[in-house]
Amino acid sequence: MKRMLNEAAAFREEMVDGFVAAYGRHVRRVPGASGIVAVGAPRPGKVSVVVGGGSGHYPAFYGLVGRGLADAGVIGDVFTSPSGEQAYRVARAADGGAGILFTFGNYSGDVLNFGMAETRLRAEGIDARTVLVTDDVLSAPKDEADRRRGIAGGFYVFKTAGASATRGDDLATVEALTRRANARVRTAGVAFAGCTIPGQEEPLFTVPAGQMEVGLGIHGEPGVRTVPQVPSREIARLLVDTLLADAPADAGSRAAVLVNGLGGTKYEEMFVLYQAVAPLLAAAGIEAYEPQIGEFVTSLDMAGCSLTLFWLDDDLRALHDATAVTPAYTRLGPDAGDTGAIAGAVGAETAAPVADTDGGAAGTVEVVDRVGIDGARDAIAAAGAVGAAGSFGVTARAALGEVLRAIEATEAELGRLDAAAGDGDHGLGMARGFRAAVDAVDGFGGPAGATFVRAGTAFMDAAGGASGALVGAWLTTIGSSLPASDDAVDAAAFAAALAAALAAVPLLGQAAVGDKTLVDTLAPFGEALDAAVGGGATLPEAWAAALPAAEAGMRSTEGMVSRRGRASRLGERSRGHVDAGATSMFYVLRAMGDALREA
Ligand code: ADP
Ligand code: MG
Question: What is the 424 CA–ligand 2 centroid distance (Å)?
Fold first, then answer.
């Protein structure tokens, strides 16, 4: 796969720089954060709508920042949720004093990371709320609609939020209307070929000749099922039938219609699809309101498309029709003539200064908010204040270095495991995270506790994604749970810190043993470690004795169906391979054991 890029690691930064250089009339970069705000935002007294997610989906999400739509966009690495830290900084820069509405697709990584930003904003007295987009009808049954993932229908949800906030609605109203939009939007899609992450050689999945995938994901996840390829008119019938069968009870008879291309499907093919969709909708008595055909949410170069129906009532139609002018989407509404909206949107107005959130409260308290663990404040404060450094701090840094080597050596394998039912970024994210963790403690002379807190904080911010939040919280909580002085660190203290950290991980991700996640490796390891320590073993001995339990836990995930994270949308299809996070966690523990033995 040939791509136009420099170094893969610089892809996101260079992409954002180029975007802002081109569209400075619409958006500005938030200093010190991976995100943008609309020119003119924040507007005092106006609710700010903040969208975001991984990149690779353009024009979602940051192409929709501008007048009448989103006030700010948080931009993660390709297919990877931005970190909680980045979401927080961008939201702070967009805050106009009337509250923040976050709206984004329902993916574990985004939910965890934006959730941490929301918690932190609230703790600072800023009213922040979240509306998840859950339009993909094929990703979960109707009675579990809140588990569905967000795909192309997010466009209408964002448009509703932006229009409501722009006309001056208060936060409760913006939130309620945005929820209503999400409750009335449905999408179904098909895919014909996977996509390739910049810098990688292989596509995330391939579709056998003559076959197609029904139920596409927008991260190169395989479909929900593979079926023989059929002509366009039959795809039209499949998608229309699927959406009509799932229509809300009070749908009415008018729906905005969107045919969305995933990046590798031509507009001409989508027109061919639409010529078959239009009469099917008419025959069902539905007025197709302002159909749009194009790319609204892509998945890199994936081939495929989706059909969205947005069931309009009068309120939602008014918001749909309102003026919006952004880099990727422009619509002039009834309000365009008398509000000066267009002049403002093209940068004629003076931009409000963007708050530089770079120097936010540093250190200990910040960690608590991001980890989101009640009662950990004191423990973290203790760990943050550098206590007596003994040899354990040195061992901790050696262990992190050993882990980085192990993860870099297995990065491609972890990517492949994640691609089986997820989005293939797990190896990239773990390597990025541990590189940042090792950098953060390079030259640091403090004890083990403070070392792990630093490493975990850096990991969380750099890795992004579900595992960024989860593994970052795990590392940070190990650090905050260890005694402040290395003199007091022994096998029992370390086992206790691991137990505290394990409690933090399900707290963030709500995963239990058997859900096919990293918890399946960590939980049996913790039990075995406790038992060995209780029997009088030293830490290196206990660690070695517990590793087989971690390995068995990891292997047990092969036969499981995923119940957490993005793989959970694939049901039975997630069975048959070990979980990516469970595997990387085993490698982490094994590398730490190697470092302990050598120490
Ligand atoms: P993302 O899903 O955001 O792409 P990664 O690919 O880095 O994140 O990590 C995926 C791994 O994270 C999964 O294999 C699983 O072990 C773990 N995971 C995902 N969601 C959860 C969750 N809600 N709770 C616990 N673990 C999770
Ligand atoms: Mg992933």
Answer: 5
pLDDT in tens, 565-579: 888 888 888 899 999
Q: Which DSSP string corresponds to 83-109?
A: PHHHHHHHHHHH--SS-EEEEEE--HH
CATH of 8-339, one of 3.30.200.20, 3.60.20.30, 3.40.50.300, 3.40.50.10440: 3.40.50.10440
- Residue 386's pLDDT is 56
Active site residue 219: yes
Tens digit of each residue's pLDDT (9 = 90 or more) over 239-258: 999 999 999 999 999 999 99
Kindly list the protein residues whose Cβ atom lies closer than 6 A to any atom of ligand 1. 81, 108-109, 418, 422-423, 425-426, 429, 465-467, 470, 509-511, 517-519, 564-566, 579-582
Segment 110-147, tens digit of pLDDT: 999 999 999 999 999 999 999 999 999 999 999 999 99
Q: Write out pLDDT tens, residues 142-172.
A: 999 999 999 999 999 999 999 999 999 999 9
Task: Please answer whether residues 539 and 595 qualify as being in contact, where contact means their C-beta atoms are separated by less than 8 angstroms.
Answer: no
How distant, in Å, are the alpha carbons of 54, 199, 483, 558 from that of 2? Answer: 21, 9, 51, 33
Q: Report domain 362-598's class.
A: mainly alpha
> What is the 3-class SS of 399-432, one letter each residue?
HHHHHHHHHHHCHHHHHHHHHHHCCCCHHHHHHH
> Is the model's pLDDT at 228 over the cut of 80?
yes
CA of 108 to the centre of ligand 1 (A): 7
- In the reported structure, the alpha carbon of residue 109 is separated from the centroid of ligand 1 by a whole-number distance in angstroms of 7
So what's the pLDDT on residue 453? 96
> The pTM is what?
0.85
> How do the domains of the chain map onto residue ranges?
8-339, 362-598
